UniProtKB/TrEMBL annotation:
Its job: Plays a role in vesicle-mediated protein trafficking of the endocytic membrane transport pathway. Believed to act as a component of the putative CORVET endosomal tethering complexes which is proposed to be involved in the Rab5-to-Rab7 endosome conversion probably implicating MON1A/B, and via binding SNAREs and SNARE complexes to mediate tethering and docking events during SNARE-mediated membrane fusion. The CORVET complex is proposed to function as a Rab5 effector to mediate early endosome fusion probably in specific endosome subpopulations.
Sequence ranges of the WD repeats: 167-208
Protein name per UniProt: Vacuolar protein sorting-associated protein 8 homolog
One GO molecular-function entry: zinc ion binding
Zinc-finger among keywords: yes
Keywords: Metal-binding, Phosphoprotein, WD repeat, Zinc, Zinc-finger
Listed GO biological process terms: endosomal vesicle fusion; protein targeting to vacuole
UniProt xrefs under PROSITE patterns: WD_REPEATS_2
GO cellular component labels: CORVET complex; early endosome; HOPS complex; late endosome
Family: Belongs to the VPS8 family.
Amino acid sequence: MSESPDARSLLSASSQLNLMEVDAIDDKEFDIPQVDTPPTLESILNELEDEEEPFVLEDTCVLSTDNMDAHSCDTSSLASSDSGDPAHLKRKKRTVDLNATVHGSVLRHSLLKGISAQIVSAADKVDAGLPTAITVSGVIAVGTSHGLALVFDTNQALRLCLGTKTTGAEFGAVSALSINQDCSRLLCGFAKGQITMWDLANGKLLRTITDAHPPGTAILHVKFTDDPTLAVCNDSGGSVFELAFRRVMGMRSCDSRCLFSGSKGEVCCIEPLRAPPDLRDHPITHYSLLAMASLTKILVIGLKPSLKVWMTFPYSKSDPSSVPQLAWQFVPVQKTVNPILAFCKGDTVHFLLVKKEETGTIHVIKQRQLHLSCDIISLSWINSRTLVLVDSHEKLHVVDRPSQEVLETLDLEQVQLVYNSRHFKSLATGGNVSQALALVGEKACYQSVSSYAGQIVYLGTKSAHIMTLRNWRERIDFLLKQEHFVEALSLAWSFHEGTAKAVVGLFGDPVKRKAVVDDKMVEILCQFAENALKKCPEQGKIQVMEQHFHDVIPVLVDYCLLLQRA
């Protein structure tokens, strides 16, 4: 079988490492001892035969047959050609630790420069006020403290500036935003309780709703459901209302219905189940589920065909200042895709699976919980296996849900997250809220985080940031740029074997996946070999150069054997 060009170049590079040009080594610089008569090949072979134990037997307690394969003997032979020092004889074992866990940089953090610049410019030039809320769908909308909503397209160009400073003075700051499924409508909730609906195609004001909930309370959340004629809102009195939009004879109206009264326990977070386009016909979506988080428990209700409480779930004991969090996600489970609700208050995330049997019976099944040693203030799914959490110290944690492993932790301090404390305290309407709700509001940043299609946007006081998962090549290249070749190879091998977490951009078929990763690993090995030649020490003891290549050659050989490219 002929060797591929990649294999030939890799072998060539490895040969250069083992057979360096003689004139490149200076005997004096490397303190090479003089030899009176160089040994012959025959004498070397005879020397091996004369030895009683050419290989040192490993302690059977240490030796693991699980880590041995058809190539391990070849590797041992190469290693045993070194000196008789017992330290060198350890090289007979595979140098590469196949169980090592390397995730690399999982998240790509990008500043939305265009939007950030225009947020600052709008505040300075047209007195738009500071950013207060953000939501993302096919467009990105940013609300301001002076009652305006700035709408940007995917190129970060400002498309619309909705509202005026006059209405801003009357309604107060934008306290909540929501875009419907087809990206044609925007709902704005305000600090003084009003709600407006806008046409995103032409910037026309369609509705101003002033009587959907009791006066004197701020809008904490307003959210569209999958039904474009149905939305829900949550006010600073802790109550939740359904908003049904009607249009009769060209006249638009809105009917409001109380779903939960704050007098029974204040709700401070709501999350309707919204399905992605390919799952709009999922049997669960017909019930228009809504999750609500009060200060003491979680409730899941169905708005259709008639109002029904599906379940309640009390929290375990937590800090009274901890912020309740809710997040829905459709997740593949045993060959079917069903919605899972993630929720928390404090340091423990719970998961509820909702499924409908063929008999028509609905089941809500509690899944394994996730415990973190931090107070969670934001909870988002970035895909069906991966959660992104922010704690009260503004540290962001990327967590693989199946293994419950924290893949990466980032510092969000430079983002300067916008908090919704003023609205939870309802300062624009006189601050008539309970002490318990005001306490939770200290760490509430619901309106500063919005997730959509594998992206999470974070709103800062003067900027907007976006987090996305790096694809598998980016994660490897990120390590290569830092010349972390061993870590890059370990990560690549985990992609090859299908054990990596938060994987983006690889084939699901094992044969195709391995073929693609094989080529990338050969490329890494070549880069590693070339880098080792460039970084070879130019002077010092021979042991220095020996150690330099000892850190490289066994790794190259091991991975060549693993890839069967030797």
